[in-house]
Each structure stands twice: as C-alpha cells, then as structure tokens.
Design brief:
The protein is an alpha/beta fold and 145 residues long. The protein has one domain: Metallo-dependent phosphatases (Purple Acid Phosphatase, chain A, domain 2, 4-Layer Sandwich), CATH 3.60.21. Strands 4-5-6-8-7 form a 5-stranded mixed sheet, with helices on one face.
Length: 145
C-alpha cells in the first residue's frame, strides 16, 4: 500500500479509495497521506478494529457500499463479493462509475451508461496494479505498482 499511495500521489490523485480486503491497520496508515476511504471486503474480519483505527487517523469507512458524488458524477464503490448487490447496482444504471475490488483481475468496461472498473490487486495477483479514475474524462488508467 505504501508504494501504491506514493504512485497515486505522484500521479495527481486527490483521493485514495480502497475496495476492500484491507488486511490490517498498517494499510490504513499508508493511505492517510491523501484523503482516503475504504469499504469492507470479505477478508476484513476485524471490522470494528479497522473502523476504530480509521476514525482515529481520519480515513473514512463506508461499510459495504459507498454511494458518493465526485466531481458531479455518481460513484458506487463496493468490494464485489456480494454478486447480487454488484449486479443490481450495475443493472440499475444509476451510477456513472461502479468501482469494485473482489478478485485479482482488473476490469475496465462500459455497461450502458455505467463505467465499471476493477483496479486489480496490490496483493495476491500476478501483478500489482491500481487505477486512476478521471471523472472529467470518464476514463480509468491502470497504473503498475
């Protein structure tokens, strides 16, 4: 996470958003170098510990689903392990972006009006990647970590 935060900062990111499976408090500590937030993943077993720590260091926790507005765009961020929830949010076509993180493989596609983005993985996959989302240009740029 340290390397990812550095690459994202240097690339001009204004917000770090972790799509779940945080793994531990040390990951949240690395995120606080920018405005940061996260959602729960299925591997986040100490949710209350992560929540308390995130509140102490100023990293926002959105639970299982963040439904936020960024630069006038409606964005849903979730882990994606709940396939029914993920499919429902994409099918409703209420969001400009749906960003999810369950699994190691990245994704960048349009489904109707919705830009569906999976940043890949920082841990456990064959490569380490993150995504810079440009809400103005409606695009996602994969960055190798």
């Amino acid at each position: 996470m340290r390397a990812a935060a550095q690459v994202l900062r240097e690339s001009g990111a204004e917000l770090i958003f972790h799509c779940g499976d945080v793994g531990g408090r040390h990951v949240l500590d690395e995120m606080r170098s920018l405005e940061s937030a996260f959602v729960w993943g299925d591997a986040d077993k100490d949710r209350m510990g992560l929540l308390r720590h995130s509140q102490r260091i100023g990293v926002a926790c959105y639970g299982v689903l963040a439904d936020i507005e960024l630069d006038g765009k409606r964005v849903a961020i979730l882990h994606g392990d709940d396939k029914k929830l993920f499919q429902k949010i994409v099918a409703e076509q209420q969001h400009d972006f749906v960003i999810w993180g369950h699994g190691a493989d990245g994704e960048d596609k349009k489904v109707g009006k919705t830009h569906v983005v999976h940043p890949g993985s920082l841990y456990g996959g064959t490569s380490r990647t993150a995504v810079l989302v440009d809400t103005d240009e409606d695009r996602a740029l994969v960055v190798k970590i």
